[in-house]
Amino acid sequence: MKRLNKLIFFNQGAIPATRIADIIQHHGSDISIGAYSIFLGQVRADLAGNDQVSAISYTAYEDMALEKMEAIGDAIFEKYAITGMEVIHSLGEVATGEICLCVVLTAAHRKAAMDACSETVELIKSELPIWGKEHLTKEGHQWKINTTNGKHHT
Amino acid sequence: MKRLNKLIFFNQGAIPATRIADIIQHHGSDISIGAYSIFLGQVRADLAGNDQVSAISYTAYEDMALEKMEAIGDAIFEKYAITGMEVIHSLGEVATGEICLCVVLTAAHRKAAMDACSETVELIKSELPIWGKEHLTKEGHQWKINTTNGKHHT
Amino acid sequence: MEISVFFFGQLTDIIGSRQVRLSDVSDTDALENTLKARYPMLRQSKYVIAVNRKIIREKMDLTSNAEVALLPPFSGG
Amino acid sequence: MEISVFFFGQLTDIIGSRQVRLSDVSDTDALENTLKARYPMLRQSKYVIAVNRKIIREKMDLTSNAEVALLPPFSGG
């Protein structure tokens, strides 16, 4: 399956819900699609001692992230019978309750779309050079820590 | 986790992409959510001999579907650490390239949201009294057949 | 006693209607026999019977306010 | 020969900057030693080194146009 478009887009600040609707809408013309599996990450008000996360600022090593995302895309398109992949990640500040990650996988059938989406999200979190700085309500910041099993962070 | 709202909504005709954006938007105020797993089913132009599906008309045994969806919701809320579930299913005619099913699961963490979404979609397809009549491009119709492994249909 | 029976999906192609009223059917076995005699193609059809919106697996007595439905394999989504 | 080294995430807290220029570092081992001497807290930090946007696991010779970056554990999403 030949890919013509960039796989990942960086978005300054929170990702608006309307952006996700736009992605869905522009796939509507493809009558070979039967399933969309969509993952959205939202900034959560995690506890930090007796303080709480109020926002996350994201920075990325953008050129490396674009290259690495291409490699992830190649692996996922090779492994699953999918027809499309689109990833949007926020840069800069995203407040709690706002969306920071959008991963959309399309396929003829649901199992390929879902499995590919789940694996793509794991790879985005473990392999893309992106960092989250968690701003706390009372004062200061801490650096976000990703786990691979999805138990501690989204 | 107490549920206050109905879990499934029937929508006459195709589900507009903006409806999905609305669901996401109204969860934005919940700062305990970290993950959304969303499944969308879209009507696919499947081959049928030397003919092709052009649309699906859905009918449901609505009262039974509402009751059964409550039982599915109880089981999923019991099994997974999710915070919300919302299902929209089309009734009436949905053309190829249009969305007929929307399943949204929210959770603090991604694994619960994704696993719950996948299981909910399987249960919707296998246990809800809904039927799809596939209209063919040249003439006539055939009745949609669901498989449980997701191999043959979305 | 009259019973309303509802049909869905491909069964409506066979029955030609979404609803049929039957009299003198005291249980679900009698109801099936009456329907199969009237609509022979039903013998080749796959379906389950729901009484009051619950699928039943064994014979059940029917009362006049029972909501009976014949459900072919589901194909939502 | 001068090398530009880029820092990301929590390493910017230690270095106080996103970019440092070093001279007389012919390979990545020399580069790490120079950085650790200048920024002792780097010794306690977890990171990998990328040269030209690829993570390297072993010592690599550096040329003057090399793009070197120190990457702490990723935490996107």
Describe the overall structure.
The complex is a heterotetramer, with two copies of chain A (154 residues) and two copies of chain C (77 residues). By secondary structure, chain A is of the alpha+beta class. Chain A has one domain (5-153): Alpha-Beta Complex (Aldehyde Oxidoreductase, domain 3). Chain A contains three helices and eight strands. Chain A is elongated. Chain A starts with 7 loop residues before the first strand and ends in an 11-residue tail after the last strand. Mean pLDDT of chain A is 92; it is low at 150-154. Chain C is α+β, with helices and mostly antiparallel strands. Chain C has two helices and five strands. In chain C, strand 3 (48-51) and strand 4 form a beta hairpin.
- Secondary-structure element order of chain A, N to C: EHEEEHEEHEE
**Count of individual helical segments of chain A:** 3
The end-to-end distance of chain C, rounded to whole angstroms, is: 38 Å
How are helices and strands ordered from N to C of chain C?
EHEHEEE
Structural class of chain A: alpha+beta
Work out the helix count of chain C: 2
Whole-number total of structural domains of chain C: 1
Shape of chain C: globular
CATH structural class of chain A: Alpha Beta
Q: Profile the largest sheet of chain C.
A: 5 strands, mixed
